[in-house]
Design goal:
The chain is α+β, with helices and mostly antiparallel strands and 76 residues long. It has helices at 16-27, 43-54; strands at residues 4-8, 33-38, 57-64, 67-73. Strands 1-2-4-3 form a four-stranded mixed beta sheet, covered by helices on one side. The longest helix is centred in the first third of the chain and has 12 residues, at 16-27. The two termini are 13 Å apart.
């Protein structure tokens, strides 16, 4: 079973959440599932671009008001 890590990036400015995701990708083993929360307007598009480059899989995207929660699996 894949490890599941939650990362709270609420309050971070543009590109900081992606830096946190990239750091997690270097820290955790392949196939780890990241659940990342952010309120940055560009968060979803940034994650989509990063995931395409990193070969990560976006599992789900949930938007609730200004909060976006993205679940993705690191390449493995």
């Amino acid at each position: 079973m894949s490890e599941r890590i939650e990362i709270d990036c609420q309050g971070m400015k543009c590109h900081q959440p992606i830096a946190e995701i990239a750091k997690a990708a270097r820290t955790y083993p392949p196939a780890t599932i990241l659940v990342v929360k952010a309120i940055d307007d560009e968060f979803e598009s940034d994650v989509r671009a990063w995931a395409g480059t990193a070969k990560a899989t976006i599992i789900r995207i949930d938007k609730k008001g200004s909060e976006t929660v993205i679940e993705l699996q690191l390449p493995g």
